[in-house]
Design brief:
Order of helices and strands: EEEHEEHEHHHEHEHEEHHHEEE
Largest sheet: 6 strands, mixed
Distance between the termini: 30 Å
CATH architecture of the largest domain: 3-Layer(aba) Sandwich
Radius of gyration: 21 Å
Bound molecules: adenosine-5'-triphosphate, magnesium ion
CATH topology of the largest domain: Rossmann fold
Strand order of the largest sheet: 6-7-8-3-9-10
Strand content: 25-35%
Length: 279
């Protein structure tokens, strides 16, 4: 569990990036911070591994007040996938993934073997292991970034717009991949995005932020879609909400489901015993 308690951050130049932010992030689930550019998402994320220290308030990881922990040691046990992948350009893929484990004293052979396993986990062909980041596609680079975040097998994984710089198709592939990985690994993931669609897809808990890290609404995607807290949230999720407003039409005696834009979303079947819950 990660607990932010009355957290504020004022940078030396006077910018109040985060103003009195309080939230609990449950373990082994995905919490998504979503908000427009400059709303304080990266600042909030970087406070968890003490790359930024708050001006006031406290952050606890389980029972530890992190201000009492040594920042470097803390960073080595929290996975961090940076905005724009953050790969080291002069190191090969496998060395990028193995960097932090090597710093923590794992042997070179072990680190390389573990890095190759992680390439499988994130869906990267092992044949790419000895290439440099510039020799990879954008989507492949982002996968390396995720493998790197997972390399120390952390309980907590911080992900800052990890799928920002790729085309929509690859982005959707990476999102599905993360859903699959999270199903297996059940990490405490804090994921940052400005894309509400991505937030609803990945988040067990979604936190919608206004400027200054002010919380507009916290809830499950279903809770937020069903009951937007105010006009700001309503506007923010607007397009998405319309698209998800499904309705039933009858075509040639069969019932089909169309979305808010009138596109076919699927056909309607009565639940079979095996399918259990309805979708
Ligand atoms: N080192 C800094 N010094 C001064 N102001 C900063 C610093 N870092 C961030 N800020 C300011 O704090 C606010 C929040 O920035 P932050 O990077 O957390 O936003 P963000 O939500 O991650 O934005 P984006 O979606 O563009 O990445 C912005 O107004 C930004 O200009
Ligand atoms: Mg940011």
């Amino acid at each position: 569990m990660i607990r932010f308690d009355g957290i504020s951050k004022r940078f030396p130049d006077g910018t109040l990036a985060v103003d009195d932010f309080t939230i609990t992030i449950p373990s082994r689930t995905t919490t998504v911070f979503v908000g427009s550019s400059g709303s304080g998402k990266t600042t909030l994320l970087r406070m968890v591994n003490r790359m930024v220290d708050p001006t006031s308030g406290s952050i606890h990881i389980d029972d530890d007040d992190i201000s009492t922990l040594e920042p470097v040691a803390l960073r080595r046990r929290i996975g961090y996938v940076m905005q724009n992948s953050g790969l080291l350009p002069h190191r090969t893929v496998v060395d990028n993934v193995a960097t932090v484990p090597l710093l923590t004293g794992v042997s070179k052979r072990e680190a390389r073997a573990a890095a190759l396993d992680l390439m499988d986990t994130v869906g990267l062909d092992r044949a790419l292991a000895d290439r440099y980041p510039s020799q990879l596609s954008g989507g492949q680079q982002q996968r390396v970034g995720v493998a790197r975040g997972l390399a120390i097998d952390p309980n907590i994984l911080l992900m800052d717009e990890p799928f920002g710089a790729v085309d929509p198709l690859v982005r959707s592939e990476l999102q599905q991949e993360l859903v699959r990985i999270q199903k297996d690994l059940a990490k405490t993931i804090v994921f940052v995005t400005h894309d509400i669609d991505e937030a609803f897809l990945l988040g067990d808990q979604v936190v919608i932020l206004k400027t200054g890290g002010r919380i507009a609404q916290v809830g499950t995607p279903a809770e937020i879609l069903a009951n937007p807290a105010d006009e700001f949230v309503d506007t923010f999720i607007g397009a998405e909400r319309g698209r998800r407003a499904l309705s039933i039409q009858t075509v040639n005696g069969k019932e089909v489901v169309v979305d808010g834009t009138g596109r076919l979303a699927g056909i309607l079947r009565s639940p079979t015993p095996e399918s259990g819950r309805s979708a």
